[in-house]
Design a protein that fits this description.
Number of strands: 8
Distance between the termini: 29 Å
Strand content: 25-35%
Radius of gyration: 19 Å
Helix content: 10-25%
Shape: globular
CATH topology: Nuclear Transport Factor 2, Chain: A
Number of helices: 3
Length: about 210
């Protein structure tokens, strides 16, 4: 087998370094999403999305798919409209699985995400356990990694004093009625005691360029 030239080895190493940098930047991008994902800063979340892409989208549980820059803004500024006093949204990120395309222009990622929330229900504070998974596509926009397609797969949401076996999936927020999504839910992964769990979303596989 012929030995690679110095130029070939340098080019290979440069590509590997770029890939590692991309993974780190995407990790930080998704981490920033989680930091901003709280009632006081929901609106700032939109800064993380590839708003120049006409098909930029967000899908959360069974809320449907919000497509386009304006609809993504509506989702985080109006649908995600929680009171500030007493509420809390904290979701962690685990098991990062990230694949950067061979051409370095797009990427795919999946994370498991345990979390806890405090919301106001019928005028009273209610604490919840809220677990799920994130699956996302990323794209370089103006030289920076941005969220392109974002999907929250809810596993369960239950009051802290009850288990996920005792309660069904939670209802969508009231804002959905006033600001409906553009497309119906593509897949919901909520836990049901009588159901069989599927490994969705799956691990992202290596690929060369978007769509191939």
């Amino acid at each position: 087998m012929p030995q690679k030239s110095i130029e070939e080895r340098v080019k290979f190493l440069e590509k590997q370094i770029e890939r590692l940098q991309a993974i780190n930047e995407i990790q930080n991008l998704v981490g920033k999403y989680e930091v901003l994902h709280t009632p006081k800063t929901f609106g700032k979340t939109i800064e993380l999305f590839a708003l120049k892409q006409p098909d930029v989208s967000v899908e959360i549980a069974d809320w449907g798919v919000y497509v386009g820059a304006e609809q993504v803004k509506v989702l985080y500024e109006m649908v995600h409209n929680e009171p500030l006093v007493g509420t809390m949204f904290e979701h962690q990120l685990t098991t990062p699985m990230i694949q950067v395309a061979g051409d370095g222009q797009t990427a795919k990622g999946v994370w498991f995400s345990p979390g806890h929330e405090t919301q106001i229900v019928d005028g009273k504070l209610q604490a919840y356990w809220c677990y799920g998974k994130y699956a996302a596509d990323f794209i370089k926009e103006d030289g920076k990694w941005k969220i392109w397609h974002w999907h929250w797969y809810d596993t369960f949401k239950c009051p802290y004093e009850k288990s996920w076996v005792e309660v069904g999936p939670g209802a969508p927020p009231p804002g959905i009625a006033k600001h409906p999504a553009d497309k119906p839910t593509t897949y919901r992964s909520s836990y049901f005691p009588t159901g069989v769990r599927e490994p969705v979303p799956g691990c992202p596989e290596p690929y060369d360029t978007w769509g191939k």
